[in-house]
Amino acid sequence: MADDTRRKMEEKTTNSSTAKNEQLDQHSENGEGQYLTTSTGVRINHTNDSLKAGSRGPTIMEDFHFREKMTHFDHERIPERVVHARGSAAHGYFQSYGPIPELTKAKLFNDPEKKTPVFVRISTVVGFRGSADTVRDVRGFATKFYTEEGNWDLVGNNMPVFFIQDGIKFPDLVHAIKPEPHNEMPQASAAHDNFWDFVSLMPESMHTIMWVMSDRAFPRSYAMMEGFGVHTFRFVNAEGKSKFVKFHWKPVAGIHSLVWDEAQKIAGKDPDFNRRDLWEAIEMGNYPEFELGVQVVDPEDEFAFDFDLLDPTKIIPEEVVPIKMIGKMTLNRNPDNFFAETEQVAFHPGHVVPGIDFTNDPLLQGRLFSYVDTQLIRLGGPNFNEIPINRPVVEVHNNQRDGFMRQTINKGKTNYFPNSRGGGCPMMAPETAGGYLHHMEKVEGHKIRERSDSFKDYFGQAKLFYNSQTEIEKKHIMEAFHFELGKVKDKEIRQRMVYMIANVDKDLAVKVANGIGINPPTDEAKIKEVAQDHIPREKVKSSVDTSPAVSMENRNNKKGSIKGRKVAIMIDEGFDYETVMQVKKKLMDGNATAEIVSKFHGMITASNGETLETDKNHITTASVLYDAIFIPGGAKSVARMKNHGDVIQFINEAYKHCKPLAFSGEAVELLENTALWNLVKEPQNGVNVSKGVVMASNNDNMGDFSERFMECIAQHRFWEREDMDHDSIP
Ligand code: HDE
User: Fold this and answer.
1) Is the CB of 228 inside a 6 Å radius of any atom of ligand 1?
2) What domains does the chain contain, in order, with CATH numbers?
3) Is residue 304 within 8 Å of 542, Cβ to Cβ?
4) ipTM > 0.90?
5) Phi and psi, residue 89, nearest 5°
6) Mutate to test the pocket of ligand 1, among 371, 376, 377 (most ligand atoms within 8 A of CB)
7) pLDDT tens-digit profile of 133-163?
8) Ligand 1 close to Cβ of residue 140 (< 6 A)
9) Do residues 289 and 243 make contact, with C-beta atoms less than 8 angstroms apart?
10) Where are the alpha helices (DSSP H) in 45-164?
11) Which of 266, 293, 318, 415 fits a disulfide with 549 by CB distance 3.0 to 4.6 angstroms?
12) Is 84 a catalytic residue?
């Protein structure tokens, strides 16, 4: 094939968001309309009975179909990931906002016309594959970009910092946080003695601990959480000039979380909550979108901060170095097969393309070893890059050969380099042909096992994070410590943790101590002792004491979008059809969804004779699975609902979790039977909104009513309710 034709063909396949889909299709199978066969293609005539000597006799060895079917089944499981075992994934594409050649030569960023295919896997860290989605944990956010220069994996998390500063401590961290070795308890939870024992001896973990104690640890939706590359990476441009970069994913739908009580209940009601939400959003065409941003630091400014850029327990506050948005990712297709794609995808921070490079962050350096190593055991050998989901969309040519499950049939007589018998091929690629060049960083030093002093400010940014939270977020952090440390049996560990927290914030430490039956931290020497070799930061020009950007409330409560939210519309026989249709339409227009909830499944007849089918009944769903609740009028419907304990509990619980509620027509009367009646103002004429409860006793202003309800949904939560006395709420 002429070079030119080949190049054009390659461009055609790699220069489109469907390139990966087309490649995957070549490996797909669909049994629709087909006969059942053995793995070798022989058609099977009967699969429900084994081959026996007589219908009541023993099964005979000759039954090749039985043996093959059973043997394959016996070997179906592979080891789950040692961390991030539970995940869900989606296909999509990334598109750059415009060329940034001054920053990087990576082609995926330099052609805004190009759609680079991606596969994204989002995961919890600690729980096993079958654990629940909504546990308190960091979420993994791993993206494989199938670029025209090979695969780039951005293997990040939904929190911008990590627990440890050096990769060598990772096995200890993971052992400490996973269930305890003697009894394998607790599952998918950090709330146990081993973990807090470790943390209480590891001051460097305190910044990340503050993030994990915040509501970021249970995102409302995978489409509503941020993502971070965590480490400082490098961009390298065509002139070989390098700049430091931190990667950020910003969800277009805004950042929203659950509340802890809700998250725990969801873990029972629907352990697949986030996974289902992602799946359904994509099936409905409500595609999750994330903007990719970078914070860029010139090499001259490497030491301009009050922390070390190589320290993965530190952020660069957005107020110090603003984020430049460079592109957007859209997730628009669910995987066809969970195992083949989501389970077998193999990420590796070392998968980079020209224009992206590493720094000496010792955590990143540790990761560069671990990821391939782990795939060797998990996926059974060195050929995991040949599994369809892992293949790049560009051709692969090298002298790697053989190994378990080799797929490629390498032609030719040579499998070594240099060679003359194969015409010197495959050849080394000069930089002009896209050959990867490592950034020529000058490095020299003594071999030494020690931590740089510049990493030893363990508490400065933990303080920064805490001081940047709103009052309600601070309260949630305190409650999280009450929960986590309240589950720790060893009082010495609790006490040590209280002293550790005192290094972040004295007032918080006292509040935590009070909640867990421990003495407040009065001994200054002890506070210093747990801080170990901590060296407080020295303020520099770029220092800040708060960073509003790290508070979800500060950055989000003005967000106008209702995209991706789910609303329960509770009805019964005789409901008001028109208002349901009106509110439903408004929700659909904003790319939110509505589910009709009633006592039983089936068709419900409205007051005007129209019917609606229920999506969920009171047993199959719960208020915790929705962002908001709407109850329309209809005298008969409301009269029936007044006597349903489930409806009353639905309302009270949604109120307790600070969610928007809306009542129209006769439904306002329902409030009499709930704990809300005393808490909200009596409805006036027209539409009345109080603490996120929207009420209209008649249907005269339904346009306004729906509008106000949408605003409340966009706001997500009404924390002012939390300051009230909740004792009256069941
Ligand atoms: Fe990972 N990590 N990690 N990690 N990590 C893995 O690789 C590891 C770290 C992250 O959806 C494993 O294929 C070490 C930071 C994600 O498949 C393993 C260290 C960040 C995923 C591994 C870290 C991450 C993993 C387990 C410290 C955020 C899931 C299975 C030196 C920037 C990827 C696997 C997926 C998975 C090792 C720290 C993110 C064992 C040694 C920091 C999102 O290789």
Assistant:
1) no
2) 43-76 (no CATH), 87-165+221-390 (2.40.180.10), 560-728 (3.40.50.880)
3) yes
4) yes
5) -140, 165
6) 371
7) 999 999 999 999 999 999 999 999 999 999 9
8) yes
9) no
10) 64-74
11) 318
12) yes
